[in-house]
């Protein structure tokens, strides 16, 4: 049975990672990411590439976590899961931001968006990239015992920024949703796009990312305050509030994407078709 090992006299892990759970989620993310890759190949919807990158990072995150279960004294096998599992929500978010822009453009309702469409995607993507740089660079510092506390604080700051950006994004979706419903009720336009269900998908997937980020913030706060905090020494919350939510997010996005979301090769020709 695997036991905790030390790296230069220091315990990197506070528990032995579960090999069965790591393998299960490695398999689940491999399957769902493969479906997204196949859909990308069929539709050429290039805006989903960041989403797929997020799925690939989940795969690497759990395969390296599985490897770490029998080698908890390896610094590289401690760092890699930390880095790979920080990135996916940022990739998912980038695609969700672009989906919003495509919904608005597809129904020709640019005037109803609270943010001018020429700026919307860039504002959200810039915020997402900033979060990526903050969290990605901080995750690389986790292997240095002297910088672990600083890394935790930096990651917490990145997660808080990501939550702020996401809340702003959800508010924008909500405002557009309200205006679009009023417009549809008054003008009765012929719209062949299931725009409401697409927005509902954005609400669900965004909520999943928000819950995951809140969990991660609490985890890193506990780690910075008390190395023996419950979320630091217990593994199951990771699979409930991170792995499971991110897997369900990928499934939900695939189902809505499968039924209605397609994009042409050029932004000017992008459209959403109800299948």
Give a brief rundown of this model:
With about 280 residues, this protein is mostly helical. The chain has helices at about 20-45, 50-70, 75-85, 90-105, 115-140, 150-185, 195-225, 230-235, 235-260, and strands at about 5, 10. It has a single domain (about 5-270), classed as Up-down Bundle (Rhopdopsin 7-helix transmembrane proteins), CATH 1.20.1070.
What does this structure look like?
The protein has 275 residues and is mainly α. The protein has a single domain (6-269), classed as Rhopdopsin 7-helix transmembrane proteins (Up-down Bundle). It contains nine helices and two strands. The chain has helices spanning 19-43, 49-68, 75-86, 88-106, 117-139, 148-187, 195-225, 230-233, 236-260; strands spanning 6-7, 10-11. Strands 1-2 form a two-stranded antiparallel ribbon. The longest helix is centred in the middle third of the chain and has 40 residues, at 148-187. The radius of gyration is 20 Å and the shape is elongated. 38% of the residues are buried. Mean pLDDT is 87; it is low at 263-275.
* Top-tier CATH class: Mainly Alpha
**Element string (H = helix, E = strand):** EEHHHHHHHHH
Which radius of gyration do the C-alpha atoms yield?
A: 20 Å
Identify the CATH architecture: Up-down Bundle
Alpha-beta classification: mainly alpha
Shape: elongated
Helix content: over 70%
Strand portion, in percent? Answer: under 5%
Distance between the termini: 51 Å
Low-confidence stretches: 263-275
Largest sheet: 2 strands, antiparallel
Q: Kindly identify the CATH topology.
A: Rhopdopsin 7-helix transmembrane proteins
Number of helices: 9
InterPro entries: RTA1
GO cellular component, one term: membrane
Membrane topology: Multi-pass membrane protein
Transmembrane segments: 12-33, 45-63, 75-99, 119-141, 153-177, 238-258
């Amino acid at each position: 049975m695997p036991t905790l090992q030390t790296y230069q006299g220091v315990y990197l892990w506070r528990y032995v990672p579960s090999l069965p759970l790591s393998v299960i989620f490695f398999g689940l993310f491999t399957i769902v990411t493969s479906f997204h890759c196949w859909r990308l190949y069929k539709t050429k919807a290039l805006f989903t590439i960041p989403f797929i990158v997020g799925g690939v990072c989940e795969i690497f995150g759990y395969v390296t976590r599985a490897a770490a279960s029998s080698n908890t004294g390896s610094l590289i096998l401690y760092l890699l899961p930390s880095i790979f599992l920080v990135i996916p929500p940022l990739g998912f978010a980038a695609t969700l931001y672009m989906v919003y822009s495509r919904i608005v453009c597809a129904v020709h309702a640019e005037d109803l968006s609270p943010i001018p469409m020429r700026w919307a995607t860039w504002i959200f993507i810039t915020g997402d990239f900033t979060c990526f740089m903050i969290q990605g660079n901080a995750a690389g510092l986790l292997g240095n015992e002297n910088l672990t506390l600083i890394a935790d604080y930096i990651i917490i700051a990145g997660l808080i920024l990501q939550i702020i950006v996401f809340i702003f994004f959800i508010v924008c979706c909500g405002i557009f949703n309200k205006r679009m419903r009023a417009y549809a009720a008054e003008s009765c336009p012929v719209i062949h796009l299931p725009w409401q269900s697409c927005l509902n998908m954005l609400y669900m997937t965004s909520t999943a990312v928000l819950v995951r980020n809140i969990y991660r913030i609490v985890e890193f706060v506990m780690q910075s305050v008390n190395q023996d905090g419950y979320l630091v020494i217990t593994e199951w919350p990771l699979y409930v509030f991170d792995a499971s939510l991110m897997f369900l997010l990928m499934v939900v996005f695939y189902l809505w994407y499968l039924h209605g979301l397609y994009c042409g090769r050029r932004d000017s020709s992008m459209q959403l078709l109800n299948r």
